[in-house]
Predict the 3D structure of the following.
Amino acid sequence: MKTIIVFLFTSLVYVSSNAQDPHLFENTWYLENVIIDGENNYPINSTFDGEMNFQADFISLGHSYCESGISGNVIYTGSNQFNLSEVIALVETCEDPDVLQFISKHYSVYVDNNLIAKNPLDYYIVFLGDSKTLIITNPEGKQAIYNSGPLGVQAFENAMFSIYPNPVNEVLVLNGTKNISNLKTQIYSTEGKILNTQHIDFNKQTTINVSNLSSGIYFLNIEDESGRVEVKKFVKQ
């Protein structure tokens, strides 16, 4: 796999004094999902996933398969917010139109077609056990979701579980592809706090009462008997 090209800037950059979560800088973030108008857009497979790196004064993200990347100066305007400027791009055309479309959707979270940044960009980090998830949201509501570790082949297999409705008011329905005698579900807040844990004799469908949750974004952690884990994000209205 080719190495992602990281763009360096020689111009002077103002570094904000706003304190940021140190985990933001300690990890290489691996793209897991791009959400546009409520639709999930997953990497085609592990060859085409993206990576993102934060530094004190710039960020870089890209897709090594196509030697495609964008990078820009960054100013942290709040404890969980930043602005981009002087964004530049390098794109080597891939032959696969599906790959190009996915890369375009990824970059559209950050910039428009003229490389004008979609500021301000908000971020937060969710802690689920040893794993960390970075969620970046632009003013249009588009989101890029990253994981602190590279996604394995299993992560790109067809999902075993689905949830609906999403957003949800009172009862979340969990569907699966097979019966599982001891299915463990946990609901996490965006701060990583466990709010609900259940062990279920699962017969391809169950319901989870979320009426007591405040409005906001949550994560449903689903673990089967073999230890296989899926995480679903949902919005409580």
In short: The first strand starts at residue 29 and ends at 36. Residues 22-147 form a domain with the Lipocalin fold (CATH 2.40.128.270). Residues 1-17, 153-157 have pLDDT under 50 and may be disordered. The longest helix spans residues 97-107.
